[in-house]
Structure formats: structure tokens, C-alpha cells
User: Fold this.
Amino acid sequence: MRLEKLGKIELTYTDVDDELTYAEGGHVYGILKGTLEAGDLSGTLHVTNITRQRPDGAFTPTLRGMLTTPEGAKVFVTIDGISILDPTAKPPRRIVTAGISFWTPESRLHHWNDTYLVAEMVGRSTGKSWGVAGTVHRCIPEL
Assistant:
């Protein structure tokens, strides 16, 4: 498989950002909004994240939601990944790697139903909130 760089993604927590911690890790629940630009697919994202914090400090983001294109087309989006602390960064930051898949009934966008993207993102403070931003790559099978 090879990766083809397509564009960028940006998400910021908006309405809710709750964290529940316990001895074995924790959970975070939040709503994020942002944008995706990936070739002929672009638009605004509105997703819910229910992530688990593992005992080792890594988070496993699990995002579900909708992308709305500028023309009004709706695309269901899933984003699943891992978020780890970058121990060398000053100030500390999180590195997020995630897979992205899509489903839409829109005929002109059907080819996205069979497309898998990988995102490389960096966590960042956005004033009172927190978000991620980075690049997206299309996975191209070579078997």
C-alpha cells in the first residue's frame, strides 16, 4: 500500500468536553467542529468523540459524525485512532494518528464509500478549548 497526500483536517472541541478518570484510565466525551479538505471531498465536520484513556496515558479517539459539503451533500464520517503524548515537545503536545472512512448516498461522491484515509495530526490549544490539525492521506492498495 502507498499513501497519497490529499489535504488537511482540523477539529476543535466546542459544546462539550468532559473527562472521567479512574484508576485504570478514563473516558473523554466531546463534540468537535472543523473542516476537511481531501481532493474532491471537502466541507465542514461536526462529530462526537467518545475516547478511552488507557492506563498508559494514550487515548483512543472514536469519532462519528457528518461532513457537509459546500453544495449541501451529507457524508457520514468515522474517525478512529490513537493519541499519544510527545515526550520531546516543549510545551508538551499530543500526536494523533487516525483512520477515516466515509459513507454517502450521493452518487457523485460514491467513490468515497470505498476510500480509506489516514490522518496525521497534532493536538493544540485553541484558547479555552483544544483541538487537532494535520494532513490526510489516501491509502492506495498495491496488491
